[in-house]
Amino acid sequence: MDDANRNDIGAALGRVPAGLFILTAEHEERRTGILASWVQQVAFKPPMVSVAVAKGRNILPLISGSHRFGLCQLPDNDKVLLRKFAGSIDLDEDPFLGFDVVSDTQTPLPILANGLGYLECEVASHMDVEGDHDLFVGRVVAGRYFGGKPFIHVRDNGFKY
Question: Residue 37 maps to which CATH number?
Fold first, then answer.
């Protein structure tokens, strides 16, 4: 791919709109969350979603070990959650301390109460797509919508974060 074509592809990829979510997992008394934007519904029956996670992220062994993940959708312009979960979080740290979490969930996943809504998922498939991210497909087993407008963004370049 030449530089001109790469620039065009990058601009087109960057304009694919994405919601912002906090991807959560818990396994063996360790829990964490990361900012995720590559989330998409992939089936109606049963309801399923996919999420792409960068290789090497510390949430991967928690998802793989528990076979579950949560998705908490960020409300429009929620800078507090965005800042907290955008960076790397040590697995010895509990990033949910100081935040309200939903107590009546179906799974033992940490779910943020001040999100737009959430989905609790059981892993149906995990794929190494031979790129810089792994893909998880989750069967939605529970969820709730609290209301509000979602935090949506586009990138200038689909080859850069």
Answer: 2.30.110.10
